[in-house]
Amino acid sequence: MSPRQRRKEAFRREALKKLRGIPKGRARMEDRRLLRRLKRQLDIRSLKRVLLYLPLPLEVDLRPLIHELRSRGVAVYVPFMEGKSFRPVKYRLPLQKKRFGIYEPKNSRQYRPRKIDVAIVPIVGTDPTLRRIGFGQGFYDRFFEKEKRNIKTILFVQRRLCYSPVVLTEAHDVRADGVVAGPMIRLFPGD
Q1: Does residue 64 sit in helix, strand or coil?
Q2: Alpha-carbon gap, residue 189 to 129, rounded angstroms
Q3: Which of 19, 74, 119, 128 could form a disulfide with 69 if both were Cys (CB 3.0 to 4.6 A apart)?
Q4: 29, 182 contact by CB (below 8 A)
Q5: pTM score, two decimals?
Q6: How far apart are CA 163 and CA 36, in angstroms?
Q7: Angle ∠(86,112,51) on CA atoms, nearest 5
Q8: Is 182 helix (H, G, I), strand (E, B) or coil?
């Protein structure tokens, strides 16, 4: 393991400790505030296809946004894990718990969306390059390596920004167009 990878792993452990320390009631309150800010950031009326995620307990709960977008006729996609990456599938019920405790719609061979307006991605942390530090499995990195040209905007979300002032990420790590994090942090290139 290189020195950069060791620093990244140490940062990941500290960030996860910080995120686990947020009480559940406070997390729900912060998620509601963060969703309001996220909706202001997005032009929901213009969206046609969105890639979201089904949250783990440490991640911002986007389910209210999923329901609102679907009620407006927006096609909502979520990750469906396949091997060491995932493919986007339309969000639909019922959901089933899969690897790593992640919920997914039951498998289906739906068409792949050609263009996604915005992908909202959970993070464990980021650095000055606005690249993603995740859980360390590389699912998002592999997906975006193949599909980046088909996605207009990538936004990272996090309850509390875990930020390293030192560059920890590498060229293969997913880069965001912006970060929306609680309590009142909004990072975009040039901010």
Answers
A1: helix
A2: 9
A3: 74
A4: no
A5: 0.88
A6: 22
A7: 60
A8: coil
Delineate the domains of the chain, giving CATH numbers in brackets.
Answer: 3-124+133-187 (3.40.50.10420)
pLDDT tens by residue, 6-22: 999 999 999 999 999 99
Range name among 76-80, 102-106, 174-178 with the lowest pLDDT average: 102-106
Report the alpha-carbon distance of residue 180 to residue 113 in Å, rounded.
25
The Cα 162–Cα 13 span in angstroms is: 11
The residue ranges of DSSP E strands in 14-115, in sequence order, are 49-51, 75-82, 85-90, 95-97, 103-105
Tokens of 116: 């996604």
Tell me, what amino acid is at 31? D
Decide: 120 and 157 in contact? Cβ < 8 Å.
yes
Residue type, position 147, single letter: E
How many C-beta atoms surround the C-beta of residue 53 within 10 A? 21
Size (the chain), residues: 191
